[in-house]
Design goal:
The chain is of the alpha+beta class. Helices cover 55% and strands 20% of the residues. Strands 1-2-3 form a 3-stranded mixed beta sheet.
Length: 123
């Protein structure tokens, strides 16, 4: 399968799962603020890794809720997307947003002094 086709499937899968998560009735999932950051489907379309970020809620509870709701989510994907094979879903927490916020906080803490710049200009 061509890479561009798989990329389109990944993007569509990400959008669909984000929409489906709004309708999940499991309180562990519905009460948490979850953002789907990426979807990665294997070339044979049998498996998919779904990366998500969690902004509120207990990490362990949300992961258990997503695992429990994966059958419902997979069924909705089969209904909404026109794929020959509906992939098995694996949910993986993506901590890149937390990591980026940590780096931004560190960068804000760095101070720039004009004294060093002034000494170089005097020469």
């Amino acid at each position: 399968m061509a890479k561009y086709r798989r990329d389109r499937i990944n993007e569509e899968m990400q959008k669909e799962i984000a929409l489906i998560l709004r309708n999940v009735k499991d309180p562990r999932v519905s009460e948490a603020f979850i953002s789907v950051t990426a979807a990665q489907v294997t070339p044979d379309l049998k498996y998919a890794k779904i990366y998500y970020s969690l902004f509120s809620g207990d990490k362990k509870e949300v992961k258990a809720g997503l695992k429990a709701a994966s059958g419902y989510i997979r069924g909705q994907i089969a209904k909404n997307m026109n794929l020959r094979i509906t992939p098995e879903l694996t949910f993986i927490e993506d901590d890149s947003i937390e990591h980026g916020a940590k780096i931004a906080k560190i960068l804000e803490g760095i101070t720039y002094s004009d004294e060093e710049d002034g000494e170089k200009n005097d020469d």
